[in-house]
Specification:
Length: 223
Amino acid sequence: MNFDLSVMNEQNPFNIDIEKFIEQFYGFIQINHLYDSAIHEIETKLEIIDSEFQSKFSRNPIHNISSRLKSPQSIAQKLKKKNIPITAESILANLHDIAGVRVICPYIEDIYQIADYLSLHDDIHILKQKDYIKNPKPSGYRSLHLIVTVPVFLSTGKKIVPVEIQIRTIAMDFWASLEHQLHYKTDNSVPSELSAELKILAETIHDTDMKMEDIYHRINDIS
């Protein structure tokens, strides 16, 4: 992608530093590629864990894997809120959740197994762990959150990139997805009585998760 600086400078009513703008523009493109590559690295590791588990135990501990990159608008808002310059350099230095991977598991025990397997990789380092399963949020939200770093090998060398990983059961994901939609529809302001009902439903779903896991173990004991 090439820019004609002479034309851009002639059509620059806001007196923007065009060269600086282009430099930052390319910087954001490179960051997007870097974090997208980090997601690919994590997804590949998870897929290998899942296939190995299938070959050894004839079952998959991962039901689904999805990923996302934060939008430029979301990144800018977060940096602005932190009173941090909106530059490629400050993104790399200050944000750990640009790249996100969500792992959906059949059972609660699978969640912790996946986290343990990832921690055994020499090139993955867990920076932070928040266990919202054992300590759910006040809303009732449950999930295991990890911030990890993974190496990405580029033509210019190795880059260490942070990735946020959320691991939850199918039931937890069902509740979290619908709860998020309800908050979106009501501009993040759900009446207190409905919030209380949502929390009760989260407890019910957690109980269901526990019962399904118990049934799974009892069936395995029989077979």
